[in-house]
Design a protein that fits this description.
5-stranded mixed sheet, 9 strands, about 170 residues, single chain, Trna Endonuclease, Chain: A, domain 1, 4-stranded antiparallel sheet, alpha+beta
Length: about 170
Amino acid sequence: MEKIYNFYDQLNYSLDARDEVFWDSVYHKAFPTMISSNIVTDLEKQKLGIDRVIKLHNGKDIYIDEKKREQVYDDILLEYLSVDTKGSPGWMEQNLAIDYIAYAFMPIQTVYLFQWDLLKRAWEFYKEDWKKEYKIVYARNNTYKTYSVAVPIKTLLKSITTASIIKVLK
């Protein structure tokens, strides 16, 4: 039987307070000069993708969108259609106000920290190829489906590295 997801159940899973020790450890390793880490509860900021704000010693704020998976896979799900019945764009198709996506595989306590602008640049360049080549995964909710493409981690990492190289032809 096909699993039906509930948006609010998924939201509660993503905000599980029991994971705060894990996230705190992740961000201290990623940002050694971190002085605070705060979950964002403001709905308007969350609509911009901001789940957490990291404050660094130099005063800089870093905005992070957190994604968690309950099982370990060799791919990263990139959501391109959020609500199929409305044609609402997924998070990869939005102009989010974030610096990073923190993509966690909770069973192995591993996070891929993707710089948003490079991930977005790679997405814009490769998305059509990825949708043709890799598995399309949908999550059925009560009245709609959410669509993602399962991009192998190695492919995504290579694509992001390629996206960081800017060539200006003369």
